[in-house]
Amino acid sequence: GENVEQHPSTLSVQEGDSAVIKCTYSDSASNYFPWYKQELGKRPQLIIDIRSNVGEKKDQRIAVTLNKTAKHFSLHITETQPEDSAVYFCAASNRDNRLAFGKGNQVVVIP
Amino acid sequence: DARVTQTPRDKVTEMGQEVTMRCQPILGHNTVFWYRQTMMQGLELLAYFRNRAPLDDSGMPKDRFSAEMPDATLATLKIQPSEPRDSAVYFCASGLGVYNEQFFGPGTRLTVL
Fold this sequence. Notes:
The complex is a heterodimer of chains A (111) and B (113).
Chain A: E1 4-7, E2 10-14, E3 19-25, E4 32-38, E5 45-51, E6 56-59, E7 62-67, E8 72-77, E9 86-93, E10 99-101, E11 105-110
Parallel strand pairs in A: 2-11
Antiparallel strand pairs in A: 1-3, 3-8, 4-5, 4-9, 6-7, 7-8, 9-10, 9-11
Chain B: E1 5-7, E2 10-13, E3 19-24, E4 31-38, E5 42-50, E6 53-56, E7 65-71, E8 74-79, E9 88-95, E10 103-104, E11 108-112
């Protein structure tokens, strides 16, 4: 099945700086790549997603890029704010139509 | 603002007891997922349903876990008998197919002593 890995596991950034989280996936047939944000004690919530026919997608301070050849995709957060502190999960849909999640990245924005 | 609901929110039980978790998906959603979240394993897919039919439950320990959708408004996850290693947060999510957003419920925090 699909295997999704995230790096780094923890990321600390100064408020106002950018944060980048990278994910790799194993199944070349995967074609849907969502990112979920989970604040402490709360439910995961979708923040952005991308399909394999698009290389980049942006929504205000958040962007996702996809490199199908290298089988990796990245989440970019610009002008980070304290409310961006959370765990971010990437995921990929594999040929069995299941969403495989990475283990998550803890992002800490230092005021 | 429609949301997925789950009950109970917290459950503490003793090893060997039966545990039943319930989920009400968002009305109109045709796909329901059960996930287990732990620090070590992250978010693991246990089972999912489309139009109430089970499509995949390969992530579940079959000998003790079972998942059902008695009707379109209720999904259940049962553990019998429960073991300490089952302690985790169990999330239900619903959506309109796999390639669309999954809306997560608040989760059930299960502690098996």
